[in-house]
Specification:
The chain has about 170 residues and is mainly alpha-helical. The chain contains ten helices and no strands.
């Protein structure tokens, strides 16, 4: 109700708390898909009429610690697949990197979130993107996920011979 009231009275959802989180970050963390849906229906997203401020709500980084996560990182980390789907449908940047260079797809593989891996792959996330240590989503999937996820990434074209900074491949 508070979010609806704020939106009706044109208060901006970009206001941040002391940790640098906005309403969308908090909705993503706590799995409030209905609230996220209200915020994303403002209209937000990457259409031709979206303003810079509207786009910032979808992809703005928080200032919590050193992670600097976008709302999509929060949805993946907190295992909120419904919110992840909403963000992807609102054209959130699936390549957005946190402080460590991790993309939401890498995080989904780290957390064994198979449903979100599929959502992000369908959204054309770059499975060969590398974090600050040279690791790709396939490195994380090979170490943590069922073989089906590894096979899916490889069938989609993930490069199996990419080496991280220690010279290790995913295989």
């Amino acid at each position: 109700e508070l979010v609806k009231l704020c939106l009706v009275h044109d208060n901006t959802p970009t206001i941040r708390n002391a940790l640098g989180e906005n309403c969308l970050h908090l909705a993503c963390q706590h799995g409030h898909a209905a609230v996220a849906g209200l915020l994303l229906a403002r209209p937000l997203g990457r259409d031709a009429k979206a303003t810079r401020a509207e786009l910032a709500v979808v992809d703005v980084r928080d200032r919590v610690g050193e992670q600097h996560w976008a709302p999509l990182h929060h949805a993946v980390y907190h295992r909120q697949e419904a919110v992840c789907r909403l963000l992807v449908a609102s054209r959130a940047d699936v390549e957005y990197r946190d402080y460590n260079g991790s993309t939401p797809l890498m995080m989904a593989c780290q957390r064994k979130e198979l449903g979100m891996v599929k959502v992000l792959v369908q959204a054309q996330a770059d499975f060969d993107a590398r974090d600050n240590l040279g690791r790709s989503a396939l490195h994380f999937a090979a170490a943590r996920c069922p073989q089906a996820v590894v096979r899916m990434l490889v069938q989609c074209g993930a490069k199996t011979r990419l080496k991280d900074h220690d010279g290790l491949t995913a295989s």
